Every structure is written in C-alpha cells, then in structure tokens.
Amino acid sequence: MNKLSRKTVYKNRWMQVHEDAVRFPDGSEGIYGLVDKPDFALIIPRHDDGRFQLVEQYRYPVGGRYWEFPQGSWEGVLNANLEQVALGELEEETGFKATSLTKLGHLFEAYGFSNQGFDVFLAEGLTPAEVSRENTEQDMVTAAFTRAEITDMIRSGDIKDAPTVAALGLLSMSE
Question: Torsion over CA of 115, 91, 138 and 76, rounded to 10 degrees?
Fold first, then answer.
C-alpha cells in the first residue's frame, strides 16, 4: 500500500488524526484513517514479596474505572527517553522509585489504526517516594496485588487494558 497524500483532520497536544489517500497493491485507491500518537512507557512494578503495584483510574473513552499497570508518555517532550519516562511515571502514579529497570520489549497498542507503541519495563527494588499526579490523574488510586489476583481481575473484567495484559504476557515469557 502506498500513501498518495495526507490530510490532518484533527490535532491536539496528545495526538493527530490523519486521513491518508492510499493506493492498494491492485491499483485501486482508498482512504486510511491514522491516529498518530507518541510512544509511551508501561511499567510492571514488582515488590520484593512478588506482588505487583497497579493503578486504577477512570478512563473517559470507555466510561469506566479499571486497574492497569502504570503507563504514560511525556507529551511536551519530543523523542523522550522511554526509560526516563518509565521511572518518572512510576513515581508520579504509584509513589515508588525503582533501583532496577529492565526493558522486556516493545509492542504496538492498536496498529490497525494507530502508530503508537510502548516499551514494557520491569521495575524492581521499589522504595517509597512522593506521589505527584497530573491534574487528569487526580482520581487515581494504587494498590499491590499478587499474580493470581491479577489473573482473576483479568478474568472478571476489572482489568481490560490490553497493554497491561500484553505486558503480563511478556513478563511471563521472560521468566
């Protein structure tokens, strides 16, 4: 598939939405919608006792509160170092610092319509720090759970975040 032209139909500080005119391999033409967002970091914070620190917040697009691993990006910093983003988001959202950060892999969130990807990091050696959430995260809560509890939360629908479930799969493959 070849891009013939691009029209940006929406833009804010978090994303751009493009409509590309494309030519398919058979020569026919069409359009393709693309959500352009910066990559983000997802952090799997593992305590020394094996429990994992999750956050829960209201997610406006789906109208509900769900548990997930801490994650985020720095919208105002182009090409931000995702390892630094991971350490910052961990402290900001959970109130913990990590002495060890291991990159487990890079995944795409929804590559059928978006170019956004994310690096998955395992954070260990957690020590208490200061929570410093953004205004949009003021309703966020955090708690630690065992792997069995997290699995049950996925089954029950308390965790529906695809990056969280995929990151747990990456962790399982790395152990």
Answer: -40
